[in-house]
Model the fold of this input.
Amino acid sequence: MAKSKTHTKKPAHVSSKSLDETTRFEIFRRFRDHDPHPKGELDYVNHFTLLVAVVLSAQATDIGVNRATRALFEIADTPQKMLALGEDQVRDHIRTIGLFRNKAKNVIGLSEKLIAEFGGKIPDDREALVSLPGVGRKTANVVLNIAFGHPTNAVDTHIFRISNRTGLAPGKDVLAVEKALDTNVPEEFGLHAHHWLILHGRYVCKARKPDCPACLISDLCLFEDKTEML
Done:
C-alpha cells in the first residue's frame, strides 16, 4: 500500500517569499516620507507610565488602555506612588481592561521590583525588563524603542501579519519575524520601523480586508490576494 503524503499546514499569513533589499528600502522610504515621525498610540507621561501602559495593552486596545489609565497616571506616575496606591485601587482603575485582575497584580509586582532592584528607574536592558512581572519580550522591545531609542522590533499580530503578507520579513513565529526584521530593516529606518508597521497594519493592511487601493506599498508587496478599487 502506498504511503499517504502528510501536508503540514503553515500558520496563517506565513509566507515563503521574501522581498529583495532594494524593495525593502523603498518600502521604508515611502513610510518615512508619508510619516517622518510616527508615534505610538498609548498615552504616558514618563518611562514608568509607558511601561505600565504597554503591560496593560496586552489583549486590549490602546484606546481602552488610555481611557483606563488617564486618571490612574494622574495619581500614580512612579513606582512608589503605584505601590502606595495598592493592588485594589489599581484594579478599580483598570477594570474595563481585559485580564484586569492579573494585570493589577503585575503592575504592583513590577513596581515593587523596580524599587527593590533598580532604584525605581526603568532599566535600559532587555534582560532586566523581562525579569519584571508581566513584562515579556514584546513589551521590553517597545520600552527599549520608545524610552531609550533602541531600533527594536516589537512584533505584535499586525507586524507578524504584514511581515509575512508582504514578504518583508517572513517567519513562522514572532521571534523569527523579529529576527528577520532586525536583519531586513535598513539601518536608517530602524528606530521607527515597528511604529510604521503597526500603524499600517491597524489602518491599511488589516487582517480581514486590507485596503490595498489606499496602500503606499501595494505595488511592492508580495500579497497575492490584493483587494481592488470598487
About this structure: The longest helix spans residues 100-118. The CA atoms of residues 171 and 177 lie 5 Å apart. The chain is about 50% helix and 0% strand. The radius of gyration is 20 Å.
